[in-house]
Amino acid sequence: MTHFCAPPGLGRRSFLRVAGQSAAVVAAGSAVPWLAGCGSSAAGGDGDGKGRFTVKLAWIPNAEYAGIFVGAEDGLYTKQGLDVEVLPGGPNSAVVPMVTTNRVDLGVEAIPENVATAVARGSKLKIVGAGLLKSPESWISLADRPVRSPKEIEGKKLGITLAGKNTALVFMKRNGVDVSKVRLVPIQFDPAPLAAREVDAIWGFASNQPVSLELRGVKTHVMPLADFGFNRMQSVFFASQKTLDDPAARERARKFMTASRLGWEAALRDQRHAADVIIKKYGAKLGLKLDEQAKSLAAIAPYVSGAGTGATKLFWMSDALIEETITSLTSIGIKLDKSLFTNELLGG
């Protein structure tokens, strides 16, 4: 059996697709107090709950977690002997503290630097799998005025979020872009400035803003940073060292990762089924639309599989991917080393 605490509101990915961003943020924020009643018990099992397993997501349920939802719908966790509870996230619902204090068995964090920063401050955590083997961070331009390479950024007006500014500057410098020839314009996540041609390109995610704009009839060109030497794993699964050191807890985590990988394989194989699962289970409460979830899943699929990176196994953190992640994070001031990563829950 799998339990989902699915709050009302809009997900990060979905609010990019609506006109009123502020209203969507309020809706998403309304989920936070509701979450306080979810997953309050300790992680792991006791008594007759030996197969109980709790996972905390970084955001509200949508296509970016399709593999977990399909795993639940298709009984893949049950086949592993697990009784899984999935706790959604939100704008004020941090994942790292829940895992660090062992209130949940495992967390899914959007970016690895959040885990790395916690470890640098003394938390005993390990990243145990990469939900995205290729970073979807991208420069997004209009199809009729595409920005195809880093050097083409020069002379352009670029929309940039506050959170992405540091990484964007590092990326440009590493690719020989004369930053003095670039005008950075502060924007929010909504891609409206690009659609209105107020900027030449925006910083965003291949699975987000391009889908939002496509649904508005606006065609775009996507230039992933990963294609130009700036890749890092994202949507990372992570666990506490305490979980990994406990044989029973570690085995439950291994089974969860196995079923989740099978769920993602099924979701990629039959994306329509995956989108249907998301809508049927959460659509009424989240205001999601079938076509947007199907398009979002199609857009994120290459980044889950690591298309073009040589990846052959979902979630697997190859030496090359770990090194790319370390290099990219180090360049933006994050301290980490190979000891942060382990494939021990993924098999050979």
Explained architecture:
This protein is α/β, with parallel strands linked by helices and 348 residues long. The chain is built from 15 helices and eleven strands. The protein has helices spanning 12-15, 21-29, 31-35, 66-73, 76-79, 96-100, 112-120, 165-174, 192-195, 209-215, 241-245, 247-269, 271-286, 290-305, 319-331, and strands spanning 2-4, 52-56, 83-87, 106-109, 125-132, 137-142, 157-160, 183-186, 201-205, 220-224, 234-240. It has a six-stranded mixed beta sheet with strand order 1-3-2-4-11-5, with helices on both faces. A five-stranded mixed beta sheet has the order 8-7-9-6-10. The radius of gyration is 20 Å and the shape is globular.
Rg from Cα:
20 Å
| pLDDT < 50 runs, ≥5 residues | 6-42
Helix/strand structural class: alpha/beta
Number of helices: 15
The portion of residues forming beta strands comes to: 15-25%
Mean pLDDT: 86
Biggest sheet architecture: 6 strands, mixed
β-strand number: 11
Helix content: 25-40%
Order of helices and strands: EHHHEHHEHEHEEEHEHEHEEHHHHH
- How are the strands of the largest sheet arranged? 1-3-2-4-11-5
In whole angstroms, the N-to-C terminal distance is 28 Å
Coarse shape: globular
